[in-house]
């Protein structure tokens, strides 16, 4: 796994009490039981933690963890 993936899983675990072992690199938002409000909270938490913003329009095009990780890496996140 990438460091970006590990960071996102860490935020999911810490902020949303999602057990890291239940998250896979292919997890969808439905798999993680993340509704639209929780997704907005996740994006805010990632912005706070990582300093990289995902816009609402970008989020609307995403369906799961691979999309978030790819977008963060595309924006130059190097954690």
UniProtKB/TrEMBL annotation:
Pfam annotation, one family: PP-binding
Transmembrane portions of the chain: none
Boundaries of every Carrier domain copy: 1-76
Identify the InterPro entries for this entry.
ACP-like_sf, PP-bd_ACP
Please name the PROSITE patterns in this protein's record.
CARRIER
Q: What protein does this entry describe?
A: Carrier domain-containing protein
């Amino acid at each position: 796994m990438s460091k970006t993936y590990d960071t996102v899983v860490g935020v999911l675990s810490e902020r949303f009490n999602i057990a890291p072992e239940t998250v896979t690199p292919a997890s969808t938002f439905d798999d993680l039981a993340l509704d639209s409000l929780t997704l907005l909270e996740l994006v805010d938490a990632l912005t706070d933690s990582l300093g990289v913003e995902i816009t609402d329009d970008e989020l609307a095009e995403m369906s799961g963890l691979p999309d978030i990780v790819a977008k963060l890496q595309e924006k130059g996140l190097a954690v």
